[in-house]
Please model this.
Amino acid sequence: MNNITLRLAKESDKVWLDSLRREVYRDLFFATWGDWDEDRHIRHFEACLNEGHIQIIEINKTPIGMLQVFDLDHAIEISEIQISSSHQGKGLATQIISDILKRAKLSNKKVTLSAGLKNIGAVKLYKKLGFKEVNRTEAKIYMERILNNY
Model:
């Protein structure tokens, strides 16, 4: 498969991460709220940065996405996974999430995540990977995958 590597994000990645977030969430913003909401973008981006645990997804040392995962006592939470549009549809998110599922199984934990309700591609992928809906709001669907030994 693809030669994906992960590295911790650095301060110097902030501008690239902002650009990536704008790219991958643009259509979702329009589908959900009817327009781009700069204040919402800034709030969510700053909150993401403040939570930390951000990794840059690279292929051949070229950034192509980001991953934010929290290893909690009871679960592994995939908080963010963003793949640049030029690399979407190539199985990269599937590969990354599958690796997280393997790690969770070894740790005897479930995996949790959420997605925008209008992010149909992401929701479809998560269902294909065995995630089940556990809750929803007017804008988000919350899902989890319980592994066999959990």
User: Anything to note?
Assistant: The two ends are 28 Å apart (CA to CA).
